[in-house]
Amino acid sequence: MIKFCSLFSGSSGNVIFVSDGETRILIDVGISTKRIIEALHSINEDPSLLNAVLITHEHIDHIAGAGSISRRFNIPIYANEGTWNAMEYGLGNIKDKNRVVFSTNEQFYIDDILVHAFPIPHDAAEPVGYNLYAANRKITVATDMGKMDATLMGRMEKSDLLMLESNHDVEMLMNGAYPWPLKKRISGGNGHLSNDTAARVVTSLAKKNVSAFILGHLSRENNSPGLAERTTCDMLEENDIRPGRDIYLDIALRERHSRVVTV
User: Fold this and answer.
1) What is the pTM (predicted TM-score) of this model?
2) CA-CA distance, 58 to 218, in Å (whole number)?
3) Of 58, 99, 137, 187, whose CB has the highest number of CB atoms within 10 Å?
4) For the chain, which domains are there?
5) How far apart, in whole angstroms, are the C-alpha atoms of residue 79 and residue 52?
6) DSSP H helical ranges for 19-131
């Protein structure tokens, strides 16, 4: 059994907790250590038992607290070479033993959890998503990416739980107050997934027996939890797939932890 909880999700900070009961991992640390400690306590987890931090990419909403939490609890930070080169200046002093570099597309173990980092299209140095395998379960985290393709879909297939970006509503983005270069960046191939794209991905994977989904990294200005959920639910129901009956569907919250999911 794997325990999964999005502690924070969005441009103000991202943190995910994953555990198989023995090994405890954070994916991204974009919030202060104080708030992460509070969030972990609120889901009955002891931060001093953390085994590792995995970083997806170097943007500040994914690394803001990484150096602090590594120093506080003496835990290693795992990232690929491109991400380390881009983020190292912002982390402060990290012990050599806690600076772990992996190669994208390689598999490696963090204690008894097998990790596979796969490339994603985003405007960062070497961004990745993660497949995590433990207890005969597969968890996939895939946020901050501008487009979907067959290779990425393949990385998500056969997941027992997928956390997928559903960043923005296209109409809200295009009619909103953002300057045009930012709108172009968000909607571009190295930006962020729209609600419509997320809905298509969820529907396609649900047809292939992926049964649990969490929509994350929602924009504060160009989306809402209700709109993201409704967009995906409408497409699922058009295909005779009903959330709550056929699949589990939830939304990752911005400022506090979401539901704890066990698979």
Assistant:
1) 0.96
2) 19
3) 58
4) 3-262 (3.60.15.10)
5) 11
6) 33-42, 60-63, 66-73, 81-91
